[in-house]
Amino acid sequence: MRRIVMLLVLLVVPAIAGADEPNEMLTEAKAFFKKFVAMEQAYDARTADLYDDSAVLITDRKYPTGQMKTISIPASTYKPLLRNLMPVMKLRGDWSQYSETTYEIEADKVRIRSTRKSMLKGYSGPHSLLVGRNTAGEWRIFEERAYSQPF
User: Fold this and answer.
1) pLDDT tens, position by position, 35-51
2) 19 pLDDT exceeds 80?
3) What residues contact residue 2 under an 8 Å CB cut-off, 6+ apart?
4) Which of 12, 24, 126, 137 is most exposed, with minimal Cβ within 10 Å?
């Protein structure tokens, strides 16, 4: 009987421990997104540091003619650009509001989907971040997919 109990403990305890892992990932992803939004809305240039060096940013841009163009920017280009643009964005009152946010686990990362509204330009569109831990164990953005419109 003792062996059966020990066997059950060995089989059940790891399964229960593993069950909390997805919830922990989602909790950490929610906290990370909250931090991202707060830093972005505070025009904090360190927002750029939340992007992994391997990250890619993909923007579906709709022009006044109705033409759509997809633009892909590597983090090595985007991060310095974002740092330089933050003061300009602050002067213009250019900020985004996020709503209808959902979280979904994708392998070892979390996909965060929202509707992002440009408060300066007045349009809304889909926004997605793929976040997770980098090799140093820090939460980072690995992919950002957004919708934008020029003035």
Assistant:
1) 999 999 999 999 999 99
2) no
3) none
4) 137
Question: For 69-80, how does the pLDDT look when each residue is reduced to its tens digit (9 = 90+)?
Answer: 999 999 999 999
Distances (CA, A) of 129 to 44, 93, 125, 145, 151: 18, 23, 14, 6, 24
Residue 27 has pLDDT above 80, yes or no: yes
Q: 104: helix, coil or strand? A: strand
- Residue 75: which CATH number? 3.10.450.50
Tell me the C-alpha distance between 62 and 50, whole Å: 26
∠ CA 80-35-70, nearest 5°, is 50
How many domains would you assign to the chain? 1
The pTM for the full model equals 0.84
In a domain, 110, yes or no: yes
* Cα–Cα distance for residue pair 37/21, rounded to 1 Å: 24
Q: Which helix (H) or strand (E) holds 31?
A: helix 2-41
